[in-house]
Amino acid sequence: MIVHRRAVPAVVATAALLLTAGLTAGCSSGGGGSPDGARSTAPRGTASGTTPSAGPTESAPPAKGSVKVLRTVAEGLKTPWGVAPLPGGGGLLVSSRNDGTLTRIDEKTGKKTVLGTVSGVSPAGEGGLLGIALSPDYASDHMIYAYFTSASDNRIVRVLYDEQRPPGDQLGAPDTVFKGIPKGFIHNGGRIEFGPDGMLYAGTGESGSKGLAQDKESLGGKILRMTPEGEPAPGNPFPNSPVYSYGHRNVQGLAWDDKQRLFASEFGQDTWDELNAIKPGDDYGWPKAEGKSSEAGFHDPIAQWHTDDASPSGIAYVDGVIWMAGLKGQRLWRVPLRGTQASAAPQAFLTGKYGRLRTVLPADGDKVYLVTSNTDGRGSPKKGDDRILELQVK
């Protein structure tokens, strides 16, 4: 495992330790073996040992919901992948997988301004400039974190966004925070998010080498949790390791509910795509299991889909519901939750209407932004692709 490490500020470490008790809880759709219903005998660490399960008093949203397309925010985007909203309505930052650029979108007018190119990006296949996230201290440091495929690996860097410089030259040189994540033509993962605990989470893929997912010494096929400086986060389940959960095939969606519990979407191979409730240290089965399994020791998904119906990338949590973007499935899935379980059958919206769907993220109130992915080499671009839509969801 190759990790670029920096000193961890004491205040960060202390805060993270205090917050571990409020981290994610997960559950299976059935079976026994854990208090929350997960069939798991995976080792427990500090974080998972103090995480509350879903309580019986938690309410669920309505079983059926609705989606209304309000407007097209922007169009004419090329291979959009990651999106990060700037504070105070300052616009949306969008990464281009193939071009390696970051673009600011004025969410009111749709005007596009290219900030610059992230140097070192080596796009090929499913790799390139993928997920982005703003620094927790963005108001003071103006740093953008980015996950990308380089010539040798997948890595996470941070770049300074300087609005005072001319468009096209507003990005500083990348500062490598974390490196050594296996790369491949496929399964590069790529979603990064800062959690409610202030730690940086990254969904990785097994790069087409299935065995990496079960190898806890490998960074492939994992959800990683680290400090903003790239160190293994305090309270992680395995000593001195950024590995938070393992046995994943290709994680491209991360979202927390209002009780700070983590959910993740995952591409299956030929049979089942998954939505998982993530519990620290647990084994999510790949490649030994795909979808729900009768074998003890694996954490079952809370919902699963045939791969033609989903192939999920981004997810977002809004008012008790996980919204999941489907690529091959070309639809937006609604999964209502009660605690860490699906409370009703998933419901599909926009089937085939906008093609492949890559990223969904919360907007104001009951709204989300939805990003299409028809210029990624696997879609059929239409006039205006790719685009960002604003939806009202319930």
Automatic annotation (TrEMBL):
Keywords: Signal. Residues 47-56 have a biased composition (Polar residues). Residues 77-378 form the Glucose/Sorbosone dehydrogenase domain. Residues 1-25 form the signal peptide. The keyword Signal applies. Residues 28-65 are annotated as: Disordered. InterPro entries: 6-blade_b-propeller_TolB-like, Glc/Sorbosone_DH, Quinoprot_gluc/sorb_DH_b-prop. Pfam families: GSDH. The keyword Metal-binding does not apply. This is PQQ-dependent sugar dehydrogenase.
